[in-house]
Design a protein that fits this description.
13 helices; alpha/beta; globular; UDP-n-acetylglucosamine1-carboxyvinyl-transferase, Chain; 2 domains
């Protein structure tokens, strides 16, 4: 399908309504891979249909895993019991970090000859800490370009039980996720020790929960040591439902809070709630600190402006550590444009190794709207515009940039979003869903 080069959003007067969220990208790609490695067949329901999950499914099929459609947003994955039938393959994974990191780790223990590659941006996203950990277990992985970055060549190394493995945790939690998901293939007890402060801990919790659903119980000692037992085996749970995407929920919850300042809202999202395993549901608590009124059920969250915020017509500026909600924190930067002073978002250095350097990108694009922005090594400080300016927003082939800046249309100015098709990575019909709850 030919995608438009840009999308013009007219000012949005109000938003109100209910949104059914697409499946979580993080959970979808984890469970697709674990279902492939498991003994038995698994029907995964509410799987996200997006660029990233299509890359994962395509790769699994290339490795000899049968993946069949099983209804709308459902995939039947026929597990290979820990051994991919195909021992030589070239895999292209786009810009899907949730596919590249775990698949690389698993393939390193599979005794085959593989090539792992992606788009140009993936060549700039570090993976060296994961490779260093895999090499401690005897994996033979080499770099085909710049050392420490994809593309990668994986060879049939003499994989051996290491007993103990160390891995850095202060750049990306996906390294630890990939290592933990792969270690059950060694069939031996392994202790993983984390060096440095582990970031994005809720994403590791998603990993541990997914492994648990497939029969592997990892023992966690705080956030510094994880033990994979010797008898670990992935076994199909038969059927599994994927939660709605909590990161995607943030845009609609923020829209409900912002619109509520002028009498709009509420907006409800269905698919995540108090029972969610995703850390990004804590975005709602951060939004509440900014003056939103939040209601929550087991499988839904609703947001509008609180009474005081509605009276003042502004949200409250905050100073927050956002390490636990790295993706959803981008949406807080947009909410900050509607606050009563300067908002500071801290501990977000991981933004620099995402789909783009999000710290630099957010600073640049927020400034176009009239905001005053200070970009630090691991923080962003945002002062709302004195006068909003219409803007053309560059999205850097980053889905979250496009979705975040759609909220600028609530500021009363027209906004042009360049390359809107980049939302296909996680939420292909995002702009249609937003239009469905918007009053122009």
């Amino acid at each position: 399908m030919i995608q438009p080069h840009f999308l013009d959003l007219q000012p949005i007067r109000t938003v109100q309504g209910t949104v059914r969220l697409p499946g979580s990208k993080s959970i979808s790609n984890r469970t697709l891979l674990l279902a492939a490695l498991a003994q038995g067949s698994t029907v995964l329901r509410e799987v996200l249909d997006s660029d990233d999950t299509r890359h994962m499914i395509t790769a699994l099929r290339a490795l000899g895993v049968r993946c069949d459609e099983a209804g709308k947003h459902a995939v039947a994955v026929h597990g290979v019991n820990g051994a991919f039938p195909v021992k030589k393959a070239e895999l292209f994974l786009g810009n899907a970090g949730t596919a590249v990191r775990p698949l690389t780790a698993v393939l390193a223990f599979c005794g085959g000859e593989y090539r792992v590659d992606g788009v140009a941006r993936m060549h700039e996203r570090p993976i060296g800490d994961l490779i260093d950990a895999l090499r401690q277990c005897g994996a033979d992985v080499s770099y085909l370009g710049t050392a420490g970055y994809p593309p990668l060549a994986i060879h049939p190394g003499e994989v051996k039980p290491a007993g103990s493995v160390t891995i850095r945790g202060d750049v990306s939690s996906q390294y630890l996720t990939g290592l933990l998901m792969a270690l059950p293939l060694l069939r031996t007890k392994t202790v993983v020790r984390v060096e440095g402060e582990l970031i994005s801990k809720p994403y590791v919790e998603i990993t541990l929960n997914a492994m648990r659903q497939f029969g592997v119980q990892v023992v966690r000692d705080g956030w510094t040591a994880f033990t994979v037992p010797a008898d670990a085996r992935y076994v199909s749970p038969g059927e599994l439902y994927v939660e709605g995407d909590a990161s995607s929920a943030s845009y609609f919850l923020a829209a409900g809070a912002i619109s509520g300042l002028s009498g709009g809202g509420p907006v409800r999202v269905d698919g995540v709630g108090s029972d969610s395993t995703q850390g990004d549901v804590r975005f709602a608590a951060a939004l509440e600190q900014m003056g939103a009124a939040i209601s929550t059920g087991k499988n839904w969250i609703e947001a509008t402006a609180g009474t005081e915020a509605r009276r003042r017509g502004r949200l409250t500026a905050v100073d927050l550590d956002c390490n636990h909600i790295p993706d959803a924190a981008m949406t807080l930067a947009m909410a900050a444009l509607f606050a009563d002073g300067t908002t500071t978002l801290r501990n977000i250095a991981s933004w620099r190794v995402k789909e783009t350097d999000r710290l630099a990108a957010m600073a640049t694009e927020l400034t176009k709207l009239g905001a005053t922005v200070e970009e630090g090594a691991d923080y962003l400080r945002i002062t709302p515009p004195v006068q909003w300016r219409p803007a053309t927003i560059d999205t850097y082939d980053d889905h979250r940039m496009a979705m975040c800046f759609s909220l600028a249309a609530l500021g009363g100015v027209p906004v042009r979003i360049n390359d809107p098709g980049c939302v296909g990575k996680t939420f292909p019909d995002y702009f249609q869903v937003l239009a469905g709850i918007s009053g122009k």
